[in-house]
Amino acid sequence: MTLGEEFLSQLKEIFQRKKVAILGVGNPLMGDDGVGSWIAEGLRGKVKVPVFVGEEVPENYLYDILSQEPDYLLVIDAVDFGGEAGEARFVDMEEIVPRFLSSHGMSLNIMTSLLEGRGCKVILLGIQPKNLAFGMEMSEEVKRSSENILSLIRSWLG
């Protein structure tokens, strides 16, 4: 896992100074795609901030997130940014391809616009996936990274 000092200090500062909510995104049936949901599941009820397990329908939690009035929403998701498997970094929401366009959902980009229009800054913590195949388990690299991220967030917010 690659978590640089600058990345860690930015994340810790946000958690210490602002009202934060966390949204884990991703389909747990598609290998590393479920990493965000896996981390959120591990945080829910164990940290002092609202945590939502959005899986592949994060828009279902839009009202609940807005009702918490967070300054920041940390979205955790598998994002292919060309890094090493398990590498984590902040990713600009405008750089990602909309993933949730269907008759039943909205993209994270649209959700971000709605949240930011209400004063909530959205930060995407992207974790580089290795395997996104249906029915596969999370890769070892992504699992190690997600366990480290989970431990760090619990230590800061527990």
Structural class: alpha/beta
Order of helices and strands: HEHEHEEHEH
In CATH terms, the superfamily is: HybD-like
How would you sum up the major sheet?
5 strands, mixed
For the secondary structure, the number of strands is 5
CATH class membership: Alpha Beta
Percent of residues in β-strands = 15-25%
CATH fold-level topology? Rossmann fold
What overall form do the CA principal axes indicate? globular
- Measured between the Cα atoms of the first and last residue, the distance is 22 Å
Please tell me the overall pLDDT.
85
Helix content: 25-40%
Layout of secondary structure:
Blueprint: H1 5-17, E1 20-25, H2 35-43, E2 51-55, H3 62-68, E3 72-78, E4 88-91, H4 108-117, E5 121-127, H5 140-157
What does this molecule look like?
With 158 residues, this protein is α/β, with parallel strands linked by helices. It has one domain (5-157): Rossmann fold, CATH 3.40.50. The chain is built from five helices and five strands. Strands 2-1-3-5-4 form a five-stranded mixed sheet. Helix 2 (35-43) runs parallel beside helix 5 (140-157). The longest helix has 18 residues, at 140-157. The protein starts with a helix and ends with a helix. Mean pLDDT is 85; it is low at 99-105.
Write a compact overview of the structure shown.
By secondary structure, this protein is of the alpha/beta class. The chain contains 5 helices and 5 strands; from the N terminus they run H-E-H-E-H-E-E-H-E-H.
